[in-house]
Amino acid sequence: MPVEPLSRTEIEDRLAELPGWAADGDRLTRSYRLGSHFAATAMVVHVAQIQEELDHHSDLTLGYHTVSLSVNTHSVGGKITELDFALARRVEALAPGHGAK
Are 85 and 28 in contact (CB under 8 A)? Predict the structure, then answer.
């Protein structure tokens, strides 16, 4: 089954289940603030592993105590798809309780 872009309503419905995530244009975004640079670095490694497992990759930025993700699906013209939400849910499960920046 081919991947299709989601409608604005579908995106909003899915975002309601992922506090801290937002649609910024045609990208899903989220930032996490962690307790240390080491914790943020470890999170990046874990997110990279998830991305490899899903074969779906975000722009991933490591800051001093922060990790930021921005993702869309290139194969459908850079739109938001269910693949992006699958990645977001996996990342969120990895980092429960970490507040959005």
Answer: yes
